[in-house]
TrEMBL record:
Upper lineage: Bacteria, Pseudomonadati, Pseudomonadota, Alphaproteobacteria, Sphingomonadales
Record's protein name: Serine hydrolase domain-containing protein
Short name of any one Pfam family annotated for the protein: Beta-lactamase
Positions of the Beta-lactamase-related domain: 30-385
Domain of life: Bacteria
Keyword Cell wall biogenesis/degradation: no
GO molecular function: hydrolase activity
InterPro entries (UniProt xref): Beta-lactam-related, Beta-lactam/transpept-like, Diverse_Enzym_Activities
UniProt entry keywords in alphabetical sequence: Hydrolase
């Protein structure tokens, strides 16, 4: 059902797009409703070295937006009775996951998905090299909040939660994380997408969007060739995937940030969610699972979490919601009263997002690359100016 006129009344007047600077790399957006794509744009370069122009079908590393897709996989396993959101995850891991300051408080999947598990990380140590183990990482007391236990429902955005989820997925499926997600989550939606490239097609690899910072490639400088090593290794360990062990290191294929997918592919995921778990006649999730996925289990109340200057003000099972009408929150992206649920991504100069408005049956997917590490902030929100521009640009293309 198409949205009616005046869905976003006075949107452009209330939140006028700032003058667009010259793009150094790429900016892509897709607007959609339940029935399909309604508008799109693709400008700039997918590969600055070869000057290849970007398209809405080119896969990019969407960073933390990957968490939402990992959570879709969790919900499939919940439907199959292999997982549940409220039980202690320790039996699924095969070892005891406990905050040493709160040893009597179990940690469940819902806490991991919503970043209320009391896990912390130092120096981005969630990237665990091949041959090392997640269990050893979690023995370090510095990777835990000594003041807030999991029962406190205290939010702190921590990537390490999702490698733990990845390990759990491997142990209950008996398969490598990226292989299982490709077959059970991505392919049923007809998506040529993947975590860390090994399961993507040669055609997808050839269209990879290179991520640059400071004029130098930092991710996916592929030029049509699979990366020499798809996982993180440290010398002297060789990049031999035969060293992979089931459930030992759920970070290897980056469930927290390694999804490669196009903006048009993200839009298909959004359409699936808008349609209660179904896309083009294929059932991915039940409507009840979609409701659970999108429900927000934590909302900022002024003191119950770290918001990153108002960026994170709600959290659920791999999703966030905006805007949040709470003092201290700066997550209003000028949606003119509409509520959007989804996830953002931020890494290696990329900003990305997939956001849906279930009430009106519409959504947006976008990414922009080449954003400097210390980029100017948006003057209306906690987002960077570059991401706010991409968000509002594609938002304005929804029918109104």
């Amino acid at each position: 059902m198409r949205i009616t006129a005046l869905f976003f009344p006075l949107l452009l007047a209330a939140c006028a797009t700032v003058p667009r600077p010259v793009m150094s790399h790429a900016e892509v957006g897709v607007a959609f409703d339940r029935a399909g794509e309604v508008a799109s744009f693709a400008e700039g370069l997918a590969d600055p070295q070869t000057r290849r122009a970007v398209t809405a079908d080119d896969p990019v590393r969407v960073a933390s937006l990957s968490k939402m897709v990992t959570a879709i996989g969790v919900m499939k396993l919940v439907e199959q009775g292999k997982l549940d959101l409220t039980s202690d995850v320790s039996p699924r891991l095969g070892w005891k996951l406990r905050n040493p300051s709160f040893p009597d408080q179990p940690i469940n999947l819902a806490m991991l998905l919503a970043h209320t598990s009391s896990i912390r990380e130092r120096d981005d140590n969630y990237a665990i090299p091949l041959g090392a183990s997640l269990q050893d990482l979690m023995k370090d007391p510095l990777n835990w909040d000594a003041h807030h236990g999991p029962a406190a429902n205290y939010f702190s955005y921590v990537n390490t939660n999702y490698p733990i989820v990845g390990s759990i997925i491997e142990r209950v499926t008996g398969e490598r994380f990226d292989i299982w997600v490709r077959r059970e989550v991505l392919e049923p939606m007809k998506l040529d997408a993947c975590f860390n490239w090994p399961t993507c097609s040669d055609a997808a690899v050839a269209r990879a969007v290179e991520l640059d910072q400071g004029g130098k490639p930092v991710k996916d400088d592929l030029h049509g060739k699979q990366p020499d090593c798809p996982v993180f290794v440290k010398d002297p360990t060789s990049c031999d995937l035969k060293l992979w062990k089931l459930g030992e290191n759920g970070s290897l294929f980056s469930p927290q940030g390694g999804l490669r997918i196009s903006a048009r592919g993200l839009a298909r995921i959004g359409r699936m969610l808008l349609n209660g778990g179904e896309i083009d006649g294929v059932r991915i999730l039940t409507p009840q699972s979609v409701d659970t996925l999108l429900a927000q289990t934590w909302t900022f109340n002024g003191s119950n979490g770290k918001t990153d200057d108002g960026f994170y003000c709600s959290s659920g099972n791999g999703t966030n919601q905006l805007p949040t009408s709470v003092p201290g929150c700066r997550d209003d992206m000028c949606t003119n009263g509409a509520t959007f649920v989804g996830h953002a991504g931020d890494a290696y100069g990329l900003k990305s997002g997939l956001w849906i408005d279930r009430a009106h049956g519409v959504g947006i997917a976008y990414f922009t690359t080449g954003v400097p590490e210390k980029a100017p902030r948006d003057d209306r929100s906690a987002y960077t100016a570059a991401e706010a521009k991409a968000f509002r640009r594609i938002l304005a293309l929804l029918p109104h």
